[in-house]
Amino acid sequence: MKKLNNKPSSIIIIGHKNPDTDSMVSAVAYTEYKQLIGIDNVIAACTGFPNARTDYLFKKFDVKLPELITDITPMIKDVMGREQHNLKVGQILLEAMDMFYKNQKSRLPVIDDKYNFIGMISLFDLSSRLLVSSTGLESIGSVIVRRKVKTTINLAAKTLNAETLSLYNENELEELNVYVAALSLGSFRNHILKHSPDDIAVVVGDRDDIHFMAVELGVRLLIITGNAHINEGLLSLAKEKNTSILQTELDSVTAVRQLKFSMPVEYMVQKNCTTYNYKDKITDVRHSILTSNEDTFPVLNSKGKFKGTVSKNNMDDVKNTKLILVDHNNMKQAVDGADEVPIIEILDHHHLDYPTTTLPITVYNDIVGSTCTLVTEKFRNSGITPKTEIAGILMGAIIDDTLFLKSPTTTERDSIAIKWLEEICKVKAEELASEIFNVGSVIANNTPEKVLLIDKKNYTLGKITFSIAQVEEANFSNFEAKFSELKDAAIKIQENEKLDMFGLIVTNLPKGTSWMLAAARRPLLEILKYEKLKDNLYDLPNILSRKKQVIPQLMKFFQPYSQ
């Protein structure tokens, strides 16, 4: 899903669960139409994989399948900012200050090279450190002391932009007491002698006497400021005494202030901070984020690896993804999470079961045999000719959904749409129909479970809930061969989903008739007014349409038991 920050909203056009050819093609073709009339950021999507016929049709006309989206529930990963700013272990506080300044952030995450989350570093903590002017400092004659700077010689050199003249254990992390030598050589020497020189850093300008005295005493670090002159013999003595020497163009006061920011960022992190999983649902975390005193939060995966950050401002970003539903208007058939994002339009040809919306939306629901007929009419009425390949899949979808104009749902408009598309794609409708209906058997080429779920749709009538799936076959032979397995799988689905009934309609296209496998609570099976061929199997003569024939009949059968 797209994000809001400085980016336009995205519109996802998507069909129903267990999508058929009409559902997938209408999403792709309607997306094409929207783009041609000037609407940007439109995405065609589907909730599942194509069946054999759908796959054949898209491959025949070399059209890319719609993007697979099985759950549109807004998650943190969907609203995280595209640009993610973080600090790595080993970076210094000075770099953190620069990143805060450039990116206008209040907190930044710290991670290691393997993306393990270490903690958060706060601009407030850093600012407090920078503004300290006297706390932790003491004046002793001509010497100012600043205690406990945690750093390495190399990090100090990096912070001061200094040249390294002498190095010893330069990568060892240690705490140093920093002294600024000003006037009195005697006072400075006496104070140094009262402390251990191996944890002392001396900051001094152009003072050869202080330089040599500090090195003779074996101080850990000598920082010479203002690019002051250095006596040739000093470096040789420093190597003997294991004293590191840095030379910087900064003045002494600036060097001391800046040196405080040579500490690695990981030693100043807030470790006990709230984190979120990148798959957390926005509805579950919105309140805790918006009511927190913090503004920026680290986002991790289930293994604790850093994925990015999310802020309070991101909580409104979900409003920027919108849905257009095609070939359905029932929320039970919609992609998971559809009730958590705005639905702005519906294009459909089924019975009405519209979702509740907070704002008015565009609804176009009409009596035709295929949603793709409605999409085709959108093109025609706007004076827009679809691409050859789009016309091809539109014609194929109408053929498939209307059983090549034999279904009871077929209208004259479906026939007109096929004739118009036939001229554009330069493929004969009758030839395409023959190809589509000769694509391999759904029952023979899939597991029983998949056969039952490929085109399963859910319905509710009062207290009764039921699902009906439908597959189309060239004959009943594969169905008869797998009947026992299909029956067991159907009973399992009915029980697991707590359905009052589950049915599979198998339509014999050449003969124009259907059989139905039914698994249900016993009272419902007993009231089915179809000829029983054997247990759980019923004859549906001259029935081709689930929507127009079977569902209305079942609703009538179940009505007395729905209260």
Structure description:
By secondary structure, the protein is of the alpha/beta class. It has three domains: 10-74 and 320-437, Alpha-Beta Complex (inorganic pyrophosphatase (n-terminal core)), CATH 3.90.1640.10; 133-259, Udp-n-acetylmuramoylalanyl-d-glutamate--2,6- Diaminopimelate Ligase, Chain: A, domain 1, CATH 3.40.1390.20; 448-561, Diaminopimelate Epimerase, Chain A, domain 1. It contains 20 helices and 25 strands. The strands form five sheets. Strands 7-8-10-11-12-13-9 form a seven-stranded mixed β-sheet, with helices on both faces. Strands 3-2-1-17-18-19 form a six-stranded parallel β-sheet. A six-stranded mixed β-sheet has the order 20-21-22-23-25-24. The chain is elongated.
Short description:
Helix content is 34%, strand content 23%.
The largest sheet, given as strand count, sense and whether it forms a barrel, is:
7 strands, mixed
Strand order of the largest sheet: 7-8-10-11-12-13-9
**Percentage of β-strand residues:** 15-25%
Percent range of helical residues: 25-40%
Number of strands: 25
CATH superfamily of the largest domain, by name, is: inorganic pyrophosphatase (n-terminal core)
> What is the annotated CATH architecture of the largest domain?
Alpha-Beta Complex
User: What is the alpha-carbon Rg in Å?
Assistant: 37 Å
Unreliable spans: 1-7, 133-145
Round the mean pLDDT to the nearest integer and report it. 89
**Estimated structural class:** alpha/beta
Shape: elongated
- Give the assembly state of these chains: single chain
- Number of domain units: 3
